[in-house]
UniProtKB/TrEMBL annotation:
Organism lineage string: Eukaryota, Fungi, Dikarya, Ascomycota, Pezizomycotina
Gene Ontology MF terms in the entry: crossed form four-way junction DNA binding; DNA endonuclease activity; flap-structured DNA binding; Y-form DNA binding
Entry's Gene Ontology cellular component terms: mitochondrion
Protein name: Crossover junction endodeoxyribonuclease activity
SUPFAM superfamilies with a match to the protein in the record: Ribonuclease H-like
Region (Disordered): 296-317
Highest taxon of source: Eukaryota
Residue ranges occupied by any Mitochondrial resolvase Ydc2 catalytic domain in the UniProt entry: 77-406
Amino acid sequence: MRLTSALFSPPQRDWLRSLTAQHLRRISHSIGTKISGTKSDVIRRINLGLDACEYKRAGLPNPNDPTAPVTPREMRILSIDMGVQNLAYAHFVIPPDWRKTIDDPNRPRAILTAWRKIAVQDIIHLKNGTEPHRPSKSALKENRLTVSDEKEMPSINPAVYAEYAYNLVSTLLDKHNPTHVLIERQRLRNGGGPNVFEWVLRVGMFESMIYSALYTLQRERGLNVFVDAIDPARVVSTVQEKQADALGEELKQQVASGGTGINNLNTKRLRVDLVGRWLGTWAEKAQLATTSISPYESNVELPDPSGKSGADPDFRPEDESDKYFKLIVSEEDQALRGFALHYLEEWQRNLLRRRPDPNPANRLEKKYNVTAKMHSESDIRKLDDLADCLVQGLTWLDWHIMRDKILRGGVDALTWHNIAIPNTKKLRKLRK
């Protein structure tokens, strides 16, 4: 039998055609697909996105063999926020999801096992397991060319960046063995001027070399790693919708209508605040710290200097009402937990600086000095790079969890996700 293109086309979901453009846009936001184009284009991309779902849960039939259920798998997600002097990455482990009903709230949480920001010239320290440090001036003269030397040169040296890219990729693959690698997609930005900045070209070149190193190592080692380029604008759009409560009424309306009323500074703050809320919720549930989202009312109580905690590492929420319980910081890495608490503390301080409270009694007070000792050389002053890699990874995971819900429940999954769908009975008939 001759195979035609129709046999390779994704299955069509007729109930999508009965939705309005606004509803289709909301679905596209929820699963991470583009929202531009005609209605047919949006529906086609939604179908392609659903068929490319990477989140597998028990009880969902195999599309190629409906009689064979899908076996859940562990996901190890490496999320990279691109940069040269401020590259950041986070690694999550997602335990297998054995739930068989869509309304079961006890889905496994992402376990954060690595999270750091690093300059490319310090990548070699990842292999050694040491903290990155700046070489002395004498060492710079004796060693080979570095990025800091290269700033004085009129051109970019690809050989230096190629070595950095290979060291970064090979080290992260060896250390974390990820099943999924997410890389922030770069774009040529000129800041409104006629020219493109040199640092933009540097990061773009480094991004291309990372992809090349990933492809080469996959072929050489026979690895099966899913690599995806993540559009940061799409992540921001999803975050804005999820964080609508933190926006003013005017900005809420602009986000709901697809407007661009939020500037770059505010989107950075949204992502930093979102990670702060995630970590604050985790710290409270793990009994490592007590926090309040309001910057005027709380102190951050850091853990006991002994490092002991009575928290249950396998704790699960009773329901999904706590939307900020997104991750668990690995119990096996106390230094990572200290780093997460340090971020939480700095985030609270930034809130106070942003909106100063006239009452001195409400100012943040540090209870212990543990994290300062553990990470005396950690650069956590610039929170947005650290936040971006976390938000990117967990937003991508949310997209694919939502795709899994739609594959299971169709229009019913959308209703559960608080997307208002009219004529529900009619749509259910179309789904059948």
